[in-house]
Amino acid sequence: MALSTVRAGTGALSDLPVPARPRVDPSHVVVPPGYTVDVMVAGLSFATGMGFAPDGTLYLLEGGSTWPTRPYMPARVLRLDPDGELTEVGEETLGGPRGVAVHDGGLFVIDKGGYHSRIVRYDLGTWERDVVVDGLPDGGWHEPGGPVFGADGYMYFAQGSVSQNGVVLPQGFTVDQAKHPHAHDVPGQDVTLTGHNIVSYDPTSPYPYYAETGAFKPFGEPARAGEVVPGALKCNSAVWRARPDGSEMELLAWGVRNPYGMALSEDGRLYVSDNDYEETGDRAVAGDPDRIWHIRAADLPPGTVTTPDWYGFPDLCGDGLPVWAEEHLPARGRRAEPLLADPPPWAGPAVYLEKPHSCMTKMDFCRSDAFGHRGRLFACEWGTMAPMNSPDPADLDHGFKVVAVDVEAGTAQDFFHNASPGPASAVGGGGLERPVDCKFSPDGRSLYVLDFGVARVAQSHMEAYAHTGVLWRITRA
């Protein structure tokens, strides 16, 4: 379906008919010397992901109105042809599309749930649509990840946790309980619970009653000390691989709180981004760093992983310390207690730790000498949701940039950002808002950065604005 679009010069970007983002100006962003920035598309709504076809066609995703916004906006799959024509190729339901990849004549899209997330495949010849993976436990706060395809021909994908901090609580009411009151986390291995339940107010009750909730339970259902919760292949906070048709599904890892970003290096190693716990509510955790994990089980041949690796959720922070450690005691909210009586061995440490509440999202490796920085992992940082999820003023400007990560050294340099920390809508000008995805063009000469758009956060809520998303392009001069 053709879209109502206008091809415009750069001058039009200074007077856009969108009050929340009236100006987009490449001169207001910062990149290293020797690189230039231009704008490819403006006016996207709730952009969530993108993926290239080998011929340079770029598929873009709009997440739709599952974000807290009004009025209704469709959750769409868009196609940007190499000649610049933008068309719609499909709409997705449930919670909207979150990731997209082209492989062997198919367009693979992962959709956020609903009670379950899924992966669908569009045939690029006939545009027939089939579900290839379904039943990944969702219905909560966090995102599905991937899909990405390895040289082995397998599809790698992920699903984040239902709960924010290990127990389904009122702080996630607008997403978890209001839409999916029976959603809960599912472990990837059999776990024994401590029985540390959380007593909280019940937002589903017409009176101020209290409810008791345990780990891996729906809201209002307590756990028992010594209770064994069976692990499942289709769990959450998890990373899998499968054949492109969904067969031979294999659980590689679990305990990854929000594995939204996934990338394979040139030597075939799988890396996943992950977001920190929140310093709010009835199981609050402070100072937890964002991180990037190397999923080591993906290095093994398909079909040989007998026990998935565990990366810490719901009891360990990104630095490997328990969520109840002194370093992570909250200034706001109730301190956390252990939920697992017999946690599996930790698969850390992370290959990279970032400042808390940077909100690391999607990533891509540079495989080109033409662009420079070959071997570096370029990672988007969507930006903080403080003060909603942290009372620390220092967290207010974390993120809002793209960094180039050296996964061997565990270091990073800022690559694409505003002159002042924070989104353009807060610091002024027409620069970057919230980068959500980055992908290198098939020829390796340009890095495309997908900017979600304006999302303003207060202590009690977040407001996201339609028609404020932007597709940027960075090219070596």
Automatic annotation (TrEMBL):
What sections of the sequence does the record tag as coiled-coil?
Answer: none
Put simply, this protein is called Sugar dehydrogenase
Q: Which organism is it from?
A: Georgenia halotolerans
Q: Which PANTHER family match?
A: LARGE, MULTIFUNCTIONAL SECRETED PROTEIN (PTHR33546:SF1), LARGE, MULTIFUNCTIONAL SECRETED PROTEIN-RELATED (PTHR33546)
